[in-house]
Amino acid sequence: MPRDSRRLQEIIAERRARADAQRALGHDPYPPRSGRTHSLAEARALFLASEEAGDSAPSQRVAAAGRAQAIRNMGRIAFIDLEDDSGALQVLISQRALGDDWALIDSLDLGDFVEAAGLMIRSRRGEVSLQADALRPLAKALRPPPEKYHGLQDQELRYRRRYLDLMTNAEAKQTLRTRSEVIASMRRFMDARGFIEVETPMLQSEAGGAAARPFLTHLNALDEPRQLRIALELYLKRLIVGGFDKVYEIGRVFRNEGIGSRWNPEFTMLESYEAYADYHDVAAMVEAGLEQIATEVVGSTRLPWRDGEIDFTPPFARVTMVDAVQEYVGVDFREYDSVESITALLREKGVTVPPDAGWGKLFDELVSELVEPQLQQPTFLLDYPVAISPLAKRTPDDPRLVERFELFVGGWELANAYTELNDPVDQRERFERQLAARDAGDDEAELLDEDFLTALEHGMPPTGGLGLGMDRLAMLLTNQQSIRDVILFPQMRAEE
C-alpha cells in the first residue's frame, strides 16, 4: 500500500476511535437531529444588536452549529472556530462550564460538525464569541478536510469532489451561489413579463430542436427506444399551438458531443416562446433581461471580463451575418453555396476542415473561427442562411436567409432566437432536407418530428422564440473562463 494511502487509513482509524470515545461519554457521534436555534451569522447579529442598544450582553440563549475549522485546547479553556453557510464564529468554552463533558474536546477533529449552546459575549481580545456551557457532536468526519489555507491545488479534484472545493474555496462557493441568483433573477424577469413557466419531457421519441447528437436510452415499461432531449423547442411550440401566448422553461438539455471550457454534455437552457412576436421583439426582451439580471445579481451592467470589461447596457450592437462575414472574412458567403467552394475558402483562410462535413457545419466552422472571436461586446448577429436554420422563418427580402439572430458576448454565443417557422409545408420540406443530410453522414442534422408537424398543421401564430445558455451567462457574470467553474458537478471521466 502506498505511504499516503497507509497514512490515510491510520487517520481514519484514529478518528473512528475518537467517535467510539464520544459514545463512551454518552454522546452519539451521529445524532438524528440538531437543536440549533441560530445560524452563526444570526448569533453574531444578535450580540451586535444588543451591544448597539446598550445592553452588556444579550440574555437570549443561543444554540449554534457548524464545521470545526480550528480547535485550540489551552488546558482549562478551549476555543473552537465553527463555520456554517452564513459565516464563522468563535466558541469559547471552559472546563468548569462543561464539567464531565470536558473530555469531548479531545475527541473532536477538524472537519467535525459540532453544536454549542450558551450566551454571546465579547472575548478579552474583543472578538464576538459564543461562551458555551454545552457542547455535543453532530457528525464525526472520518476523513480530514483539505488544508484550508492553500485549498485544493488539483484542478481536476476540485471538479470531481466539489464538496472539498466548497469547504476550502470561498471564491468557488460564491461563484456557484451567484449562478443560483442568476437563474432566480431570470425567473423573476420572465414572470414579470407575463410568461408562464412550464416543464416538458426530457425523454423523447425524436430529440429535435437543435443540430446535435442525442444520448440514447430505452424505456423498459413500453419496450421502446428514447432519446434525452437536445433542446426544449418543439414541445414549447406545441404549447403555443395549444393556446398559451407566452411560455418558458429553464431546464437541463443533453448533447452527446465534446467536453471543453465552454461545453458540458448536460447544460441548462432558458427557452421562451411568445405568440405575435418576431425576432426583433425577442432581441429587445433579451437586452432588457440581461440589463436587469446583471444589475440585480452583480450590481452593474459593466462587468470585468478577462483583462477588460463587457457592458450589458442596451442597446446592443446589431450586424447582419452577410456584413459580418464580409467585414471579418472578406467574402460574401452567399457566393460559396457548395461544399466544395466553402471547403476551399476554409483552407484558404487556414481553418481546419472537419471530415465528411456538410455545408452547414463548414459554414459554422468559418463563423466560429473568424467572426465570433471578434464580437466581444454584446452583439446580435442577424439573418442566417436557411440551410443551417431549419426552424426559422425566411426573411421577406432574401429567401436564402432566415429571421434569426445569435447573441455573442465575450466572443461566445450566448443566445439563439428566431421568428419561428409556422408554415407546416415548408417545415416538412426542411426536415426532409435535414434527413437527407443525416443519411449523407451528418449525424447532427435535425430529425423529423411527425407529431410536431401535425401540431403545426393545426396552426401556430407568428411567434418569437429564444434559447439562452444559463451556464454561459453565469460564466460571463462571474468572469469565469471554464464552464466547469459554474456547474456544481461537471461531467468527468470515470476514476480508475
Structure, explained:
The protein contains 15 helices and 18 strands. It has two domains: 3-145, Nucleic acid-binding proteins (OB fold (Dihydrolipoamide Acetyltransferase, E2P), Beta Barrel); 165-329 and 371-485, Bira Bifunctional Protein, Domain 2 (BirA Bifunctional Protein, domain 2). The chain has helices at residues 3-24, 40-52, 95-98, 104-107, 155-160, 162-168, 170-192, 233-242, 279-297, 321-328, 339-348, 359-370, 424-439, 450-456, 470-478; strands at 62-73, 77-84, 87-94, 113-122, 128-139, 196-197, 203-204, 216-219, 224-228, 246-254, 266-275, 302-305, 308-311, 317-320, 379-385, 401-409, 412-419, 463-469. With 496 residues, the chain is an alpha+beta fold.
Count the helices. How many?
A: 15
- What average pLDDT do the residues reach? 93
What is the domain total for the residues? 2
Shape: elongated
Distance between the termini: 16 Å
**Count of extended strands:** 18
CATH class of the largest domain: Alpha Beta
Key phrases:
five-stranded mixed barrel; eight-stranded mixed beta sheet; OB fold (Dihydrolipoamide Acetyltransferase, E2P); alpha+beta; 25% strand; 496 residues; BirA Bifunctional Protein, domain 2; single chain
Brief synopsis:
With 496 residues, this protein is an alpha+beta fold.
Q: Which SSEs are present, and which pair or pack?
A:
Elements: H1 3-24, H2 40-52, E1 62-73, E2 77-84, E3 87-94, H3 95-98, H4 104-107, E4 113-122, E5 128-139, H5 155-160, H6 162-168, H7 170-192, E6 196-197, E7 203-204, E8 216-219, E9 224-228, H8 233-242, E10 246-254, E11 266-275, H9 279-297, E12 302-305, E13 308-311, E14 317-320, H10 321-328, H11 339-348, H12 359-370, E15 379-385, E16 401-409, E17 412-419, H13 424-439, H14 450-456, E18 463-469, H15 470-478
Parallel strand pairs: 3-5, 6-10, 14-15
Antiparallel strand pairs: 1-2, 1-4, 2-3, 4-5, 7-9, 8-9, 10-11, 11-18, 12-13, 15-16, 16-17, 17-18
Helix pairs in contact: 7-9, 7-15, 11-12
